[in-house]
Specification:
2 copies of one chain form a homodimer.
Chain A: E1 3-7, H1 16-29, E2 34-38, H2 44-47, H3 60-65, H4 70-73, E3 75-76, E4 82-85, H5 94-97, H6 107-112, E5 121-125, H7 132-140, E6 143-148, H8 152-171, E7 177-183, H9 191-204, H10 217-221, H11 229-232, H12 237-253
Parallel strand pairs in A: 1-5, 1-6, 2-4, 2-5, 6-7
Antiparallel strand pairs in A: 3-4
Helix pairs in contact in A: 1-12
The complex binds adenosine-5'-triphosphate (2 copies) and magnesium ion (2 copies).
C-alpha cells in the first residue's frame, strides 16, 4: 500500500505547494510511482503541473462528495510515474456541504483506500487553513511534512498546527507521525532566519530534515510552464534540493 | 465616519498582514487615528503589534458572535493613534457557528457602525481564504487593497478574488471599490517579477499603486518585537515604502 504524506502548514505562502509538486516529482524520478492530490481550492498544485481540470472534468470534489471513484479522477502528468488528482474552486463549498454528513473527516482516507497497486507514495497538498480539507488530509495520511519559513509569523502558527495534529491522532488517526520539518527559502545570511532555525532545532531535534531549500527563482518560474523544477531546470539549486529531500524522505519513510 | 479598507488576497503569504500592520501604523503616524481589525484566526496582526489577546479577553470573536460591543474589544498599541481589535483561534469556529444565522455576512459591518468618532480609518486584515471572515470584511469595507507577489500562483488566484469581490458588490455592498493593488517583495532583477508586473499593469492600469514594497528583512523582524516597522526601524526601506503607500492611500481615499 502506498505511503501517504500530507504537506501541511496553515501559515500562508511557506512553500506547501512548491514542496508538494517538487517532492512528488522527485519521488517519481526515483522510480517510485507517486500520486499528488491537490486538496486546495486554489488549485495551485494542479496548474503548477499543467493539469488544471477542464470545466466539467471530475476532480477531488467529485471524489470526496462520492460522485466519482479514484480511477476516474487520476490524471497523468508530463513526468513518467507522476499522476495527479486536480483540485478545484468548488472544494470551497465542501466545508459546508459535508457539515452534517457521516464520517466527513474520513472521506479522503476512504477514497485513497482504492489506490492502484503501482503507487508507492501519495502526496497531499493542503490549503492554508485548519479546515475540513486539511482535516481530511491529516486523517488520510501516515505522516505529515511541515514546510517552514524561518520567520516570526510562521513560528507563531506552529503551536496551532501541532495541536491540530494531536487532535487528529487522538480522534481519528493514532499512527499519524510528523515525518519532519523542512526549511524553505532559508537565508542563512539573516539573523532572523538563523534565530528561528535555532529555536526550531531546539524544539524538533532530529525531526528537522537535513535538506534545506534555498530561495531559488527557478522554483517560482517552473509552475508558469506547468512543470516541476526537475523538468524545467534540473541543474538549478531548487531542483537539487528537492532531489536531496526525496532521498531523505525515502530513507525515513520506506524504513517504516 | 471612518473609511474602511480591507486588505485581502486568498493567496497565502503575499503580505496581507505586513501591509495591514504597517499601513495602519503609517496612517496613524500621519495623525489620522486608525483601528486595525485582525480578521484572521492566525492572529498575526494582533501579535505583530504586541496586542495578542490574553486568555479570556474579548476579541473579534465576541464582537461577531454578539457577546461584546466594539468599545469592549478596542485595545491601544505602542503607537499613539493606532488601536487594534485582536483576532483569535476561536474565529475558526465562526464559519460553522453562524451557518444558519441571519445576516451572517453583515456582522462586522454592523459592529463597525458603532466606531468612535475619532477614527479616520479602519484597516481589516483578512485570512488566506475566501471564507465567511473574508466575506464579512468585504461587506464591511468601502474599498479593498490587494497585496500581490509578482509570481505565478499569486497571479493565478487573482481571478477568483475579483469574482468574489464582484459577488459581494452584487449582493451586499454595491459601493465596494478596489482601492488598488500593491506589489510586495517586488524584485525587479528577476524576469518573472517584471513579466507578472507587466501583466498586472496591463489589466489594472492606474489601480496599481505607484509605491512598490521591496523585500526588506526589517519588515520580517519588526513583528517579533511586537512593533510596526516605523517604530522598529524608521530609516529602513520597508518603513519608507509604507509611509509612501500611506500618502498614496490618503490621496486616493480621502478624496472620496
Ligand atoms: N524556495 C523557493 N524559492 C523561490 N520561490 C519559492 C520558493 N518556495 C516557494 N516559492 C514561491 O513562493 C510563493 C509561495 O509558495 P507556495 O505557493 O508554494 O506556498 P504555499 O504554502 O503553497 O502557499 P498557500 O498558503 O497559498 O497554499 C510561490 O510563488 C512560490 O513559487
Ligand atoms: N516586503 C517584505 N520584505 C520582507 N519580508 C516580508 C515582506 N512582506 C512580508 N514579509 C514576510 O513574509 C511572510 C509573509 O508575509 P505575511 O505574513 O504578511 O503575508 P500574509 O499574506 O498575511 O500571509 P497569510 O496568507 O498567512 O495571512 C512574513 O514572514 C512576513 O514577515
Ligand atoms: Mg499552496
Ligand atoms: Mg496574514
Amino acid at each position: 500500500l502506498p505511503r501517504i504524506l500530507a504537506i501541511s502548514n496553515q501559515k500562508g505562502g511557506v512553500g506547501k505547494t512548491t514542496t508538494a509538486i517538487n517532492l512528488a516529482a522527485s519521488l517519481a524520478a526515483a522510480e517510485l510511482p507517486t500520486l499528488l492530490v491537490d486538496c486546495d481550492p486554489q488549485g495551485n498544485a494542479s496548474s503548477g503541473l499543467g493539469a488544471a481540470a477542464a470545466p466539467g472534468e471530475p476532480t477531488l470534489y467529485q471524489l470526496l462528495s462520492g460522485e466519482a471513484e479514484l480511477a476516474q479522477v487520476l490524471r497523468p502528468t508530463a513526468l513518467e510515474g507522476l499522476e495527479v488528482v486536480a483540485g478545484s474552486r468548488d472544494l470551497v463549498g465542501l466545508n459546508l456541504e459535508l457539515l452534517g454528513a457521516e464520517q466527513r473527516e474520513e472521506r479522503l482516507r476512504q477514497a485513497l483506500a482504492q489506490a492502484p497497486e503501482r503507487l508507492r507514495f501519495i502526496v497531499l497538498d493542503c490549503p492554508p487553513a485548519l479546515d475540513l480539507l486539511t482535516l481530511n488530509a491529516l486523517v488520510a495520511a501516515h505522516a505529515v511534512i511541515i514546510p517552514m519559513q524561518c520567520e516570526y509569523f510562521a513560528l507563531e502558527g506552529l503551536s496551532q498546527l501541532l495541536a491540530t495534529i494531536q487532535a487528529v491522532q487522538a480522534r481519528w488517526n493514532p499512527t499519524l507521525e510528523i515525518a519532519g520539518v523542512v526549511f524553505n527559502q532559508f537565508d542563512e545570511r539573516t539573523h532572523l532566519s538563523r534565530q528561528v532555525a535555532n529555536d526550531l532545532r531546539a524544539h524538533f531535534g532530529a525531526q528537522i530534515f537535513r535538506t534545506t531549500v534555498p530561495r531559488n527563482v527557478r522554483l517560482a518560474e517552473a509552475p508558469s510552464f506547468g512543470q516541476p523544477v526537475l523538468l524545467y531546470d534540473v541543474r538549478s539549486k531548487g531542483s537539487e534540493a528537492f532531489l536531496q529531500l526525496a532521498r531523505e524522505v525515502i530513507e525515513r519513510e520506506l524504513a517504516q
